[in-house]
């Protein structure tokens, strides 16, 4: 009876440990509800190379012509108003950008986007995070001077580690009982 239960548990642990770990990478948040401020003609470069550009602003209606591109290819473009959201996804959501406020003056326009979310695009290489990396306001790359925002690396998580330890322990126990 114990041997049958141990064999079933062992089989379950082996199956759990063999699950693909890449599914966790799809939920990796690269930008979590942050704010972006751009003037007409400026662009914000996200991690993984996505670029949001303000093509023009209609001061009379507070409408903004936005363009989202990757490697020079336009992915989405359109006219947006305050509180409109630009969402880009492939198999999963990659970008979720809310146009918050349009400020106009005789000298130009300032557009604020908040909240802004970017999730890891599994079809593109993961962004590199280096120790001491500083925010570059001109191109919008992620900051990481304190090390607090380090992205999780693919590999074994806590669950997989504990399951492996349990598997090894049960295997040792089963071998010990046979003797």
From TrEMBL:
Keywords: Membrane, Transmembrane, Transmembrane helix. Residues 126-150 are annotated as: Disordered. Residues 28-121 form the S-layer family duplication domain. Pfam families: S-layer. The chain crosses the membrane at residues 156-175. It comes from Methanolobus chelungpuianus. Residues 138-147 have a biased composition (Polar residues). InterPro entries: S_layer-rel_Mac. This is S-layer family duplication domain-containing protein. The keyword Transmembrane applies. The keyword Membrane applies.
């Amino acid at each position: 009876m114990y041997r049958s239960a141990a064999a079933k548990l062992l089989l379950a642990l082996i199956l759990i440990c063999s699950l693909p770990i890449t599914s966790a990478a799809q939920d990796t948040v690269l930008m979590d509800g942050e704010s972006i401020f751009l003037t007409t003609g400026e662009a914000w470069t996200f991690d993984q190379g996505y670029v949001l550009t303000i093509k023009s602003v209609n001061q009379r209606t507070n409408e903004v012509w936005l363009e989202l591109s990757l490697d020079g290819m336009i992915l989405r473009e359109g006219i947006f108003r305050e509180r409109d959201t630009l969402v880009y996804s492939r198999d999963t959501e990659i970008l979720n950008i809310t146009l918050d406020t349009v400020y106009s003056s005789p000298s130009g326009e300032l557009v604020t986007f908040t909240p802004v979310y970017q999730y890891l695009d599994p079809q593109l290489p993961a962004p590199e995070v280096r120790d001491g990396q500083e925010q570059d306001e001109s191109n919008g790359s992620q900051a990481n001077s304190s090390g607090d925002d380090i992205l999780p690396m693919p590999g074994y998580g806590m669950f997989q580690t504990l399951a492996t330890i349990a598997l090894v322990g049960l295997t040792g126990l089963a071998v010990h009982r046979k003797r």
